Amino acid sequence: MADPDPRITGLDAERALIAAAVNGSSAAFDRIVRDHRDAVFAYLVRAGDCRRAEADDLAQDVFVTAWQKLSGFRHDAGLRTWLIAIARQKLRSHRRTLVRALRFHERLRREPRIDDAGPERDLALLDAALRGLPARLREPLYLHVFEGLGYALLAELLGVPLGTVKSRIAHARRKLASRVEVLAREEPRTASPSEREYQP
Amino acid sequence: MTIDDQLRRLPAPRPAPGFEVRVRRRLEAAGSDRSRLRLPAYAGAMVAVILALGVLLMPERPAERTEVGAFSEEFLAITTPRQTACHAACPAVGESLDF
Q1: Which of A121, A168, B48, B74 is the most buried (most CB within 10 A)?
Q2: Has the ipTM of the complex gone over 0.85?
């Protein structure tokens, strides 16, 4: 099948890409990877609290699974939401593996926590505060703010009632704000790189 | 500025360059040919159909006849004094046993 017409945009373009990829067009699938790799990677880093190497590895797995199951994609939600749902499953499966979890914690122990966010101090604090949130609060907040997923879709994706999604997001916002304040007060005492390393 | 607005200012983490190449390599390693990936389900369905046809078309088995020799002396010693009970309990056996 011919590769999709690059002039087509929006939802039609996504459908055309999916159809082409299902029919075996590697160019179409490469385009899907290019369009969504950053979002999947960012989800794994920000919402999943993965290190970069770990997120890269899991994101590759996500796209391999997507390639294998693309013909079953039903367009109920956007392709990105579907890919994030796959990433979520991969992350959960990954965390269940004891050996990998031990390696993960070992990397956390070695790598600094705050440097990922760049030089700006307030963003670094916000990044650290976000990472410090429990996963059940961090994930819905991230998906709501960064991916723009509505409460109903989040409830479906996370498998929890609508009210729970709303309360978790509200709780996450409050906790994040107070955590940033706490970290801002503590930051002068943690100036040296060695002190900024994560303490499990 | 709300906490959501502050969050949106966070720089988006991006994978290292060459991500598509790494995905492509992994696809090749996993066997990216979907027809091969679908084979197990297809093969499973075929096996199920063949088994179902086999069961449906299988000729009815003849009634099993049991040879006297198939029973141990001990069994016969126990059952012989109870011929009636044995016939009642084992009607298929009764045809070939000469009591």
Answers
A1: A168
A2: no
A121 contact B CB<8A: no
pLDDT at A31: 93
* pTM score: 0.64
For chain B, say whether A199 makes contact (Cβ under 8 Å): no
Q: Do A47 and A26 contact (CB within 8 A), yes or no? A: no
The count of residues in chain B is 99
Considering CB atoms only, which of B7, B14, B20 is closest to A126? B7
Q: Which of A100, A84, A81, A101 is nearest to A41 (CA)?
A: A84
Burial label, A125 (beta-carbon count in 10 A; 0-12, 13-18, 19+): buried
Q: Do B15 and A64 touch (CB under 8 A)?
A: no
Candidates A26, A52, A123; nearest CB to B9? A123
User: A residues 155-184 near B, CB within 8 Å?
Assistant: 173, 176-177
Averaged pLDDT, A47-54:
90
pLDDT tens per residue across span B41-74: 566 778 888 888 888 887 766 555 555 555 566 6
Residue of A nearest to B17 (CA): A56
Which of B70, B22, B58, A16 is closest to A8 using CA atoms?
A16
